[in-house]
Amino acid sequence: MLFADPRCRLVGSDSGYWIISGDRPDAIERVLTSASSPRHAWNDLDGVVEDAVVVHISTRLDGAHAIDAFRSVTATRELYTLRGSDGDVVVTDHFRNALAHLDVSDRTVTTAAIADHLLFRAPIEPETYVSRVDALGQGTWLQWSLRDDDQTRTQVSRLSGSSGDDASEALAPDDAPAVIDRTLSSLLEDVCGNDTVATMLSGGVDSTLLHTYREDEPSLVIQLDSPEVAFECEYADRAASLLDAMPRYVDIDESEYLSHLETSIDRLGFPSHYVQTALTDAAFARDSDSTDAYLNGEGADALFGLPGAKGLRIATWFDSLLAYVPDRTSTVVPETLSVKFDSLLRIATQMRRHPADPDSFAVQLPFFTDGDVVATALGTETVDRRVQAQYDYLTQRVDLAANDVFSKHAAYGHLYSFFRHNTCGQWRQLAYSHDKTIVYPFRCERLARRGLAVPTHRRYIQGLRDVGTLGPRYLEPKYLLKSLLAERCADYPVKQQKGSGALPIERYFESGPLATVFDRYDPPAFIPDSMYADHVESYGPVTWNLITYAIWRDRVLSNPDIEPVEGSREWIQSISEKSYNSHGSVYKID
Length: 590
Known about the structure:
The protein is α/β, with parallel strands linked by helices. Helices cover about 40% and strands about 15% of the residues. It contains 26 helices and 19 strands. Helix 6 packs across helix 22. The longest helix has 17 residues, at about 175-190. The chain is globular and about 70 Å long. The chain starts with a strand and ends with a strand.
């Protein structure tokens, strides 16, 4: 048992030992230590767990050793299981710790993992980047009998979404901001307590809103010198000033980006997903202040409104008209409008597809997945199979009541992002590498259930009823959070241009810090020569994915000297006499 979470704990009970890693460890411990069995524990955790993984270690009456593990349904904490190359059973919360127990010859990458990396930039559980390592899915209970190596996975926790048609527990949009306010207030009190928590302040709606509940705490502001993101740095400065947020600035030079990317992948043990991950790791490394945890707003867009929802709303209104518009709208509308019409035509075509179709709006909304490009490298059948696996993963965890076209594609698209974007998990594992942790309120189960209670057709985007009061900025995505922030910080410009934190990676690749990346790291072998011109020699839809994979392959996958994360807590239950290496705190379980 090798856990990098600096706050994880081992507790004993009549049924065995529990390892707890979660936002409310005291509350979780009370439930687990009084539970008569793991099964009863999962039932009793409802309403207590927010973002957690727990592991139960026991010896049964017949002398067989057993492991039970549970990951909460909205968890950003990961749990990996494997048999190491030496035969040891390993359970860990950090992928690098898992790889450290495998010889290079045992680190095989499957076609499914490569496809997931190219399509979604993260494998779909139980798949990971290495076939010998399994990941526990969200809301899943793992039972593992070590004597016969028998494993059973059971889905024991799900979420429900409201359609608004006749849902008895629906939350009216007019009431939602006040409910979100009360939920955030109590949630942050529960999960932050008396710890010193620094808000990762970008100046956007999500992080600024969170800091209004922690105004006496410091903030961490990352400042990159790339001119394309200068306006976002100004947002952060303005928010810090409005909130008197005691900012700690971390200044990063774009010329160091490749070095930061390499280091972050070394620490993660797998290819990073989000371009900001490299900067986040650099910030954690440089921020040596006495902060117990970081507060982060990731997940808010996926829960309350991605920008693309506006286009979907308009396209559904004009669907019958768009069906008769020629493919090339430049023949019927002025040139200045043709781009917008072409976009609506594309969305109209996408929304007529099933949410498990690679070209559907639901799949394209969070991932901008180019299935045709990936199919060129790996085959159409592989692409279809992995997109279906993503759909199955989602439907196993959420009961969706979505009947009309907008609700169906908006709900699936946002929940694909909520469940499948692994940015939160990556940043958490990086924080662990620096002996820190992160709190993600918008990914906590309590707030997720409140958000999904708002009827789908009003959850993500504002309706036309308020056009008269909002002027030209109607159809606002994430309007519920913007409304709440306007109440809590009246001077914050909630209608300012959205900043997404996107870095100018294409420029970096063409003439910046990534210009020589494929001279240093050979492109992945799974890319055919026919794709080189568009994705290796120039920047294309999967170039970023190829960069991160190539760096990982050379620095991590083929590195025989990978060590566990420094400071990892290690618990050992000896089945036979062996000697163990210590990588942090080591505890014997008798």
